[in-house]
Design goal:
Bound molecules: zinc ion
Helix content: 40-55%
Keywords: Membrane, Transmembrane, Transmembrane helix
Number of helices: 1
Low-confidence stretches: none
Mean pLDDT: 85
Strand content: 5-15%
Protein name: Hydrogenase maturation nickel metallochaperone HypA
Structural class: alpha+beta
Radius of gyration: 17 Å
Length: about 55
């Protein structure tokens, strides 16, 4: 765990923190959400194929 500078307010925040504790800016919230959405879509697709045969 390391301290990095916030892109929004320039204050130091933990690299492990999802959002800046000073301004609430989340750096990777959108990209990680897209990744999980894609993974969930793939899982749903394969489950649907298995159920329908
Ligand atoms: Zn900030």
């Amino acid at each position: 765990m390391a301290l990095i500078k916030c892109d929004e307010c320039g204050k130091e925040k933990s690299s492990a923190a999802k959002a800046c504790p000073h301004c609430g800016k989340s750096r990777d919230h959108i990209s990680s959400g897209v990744v999980w959405f894609a993974i969930a879509g793939v899982i749903v697709f394969f489950v649907a194929m298995a159920v329908m045969g």
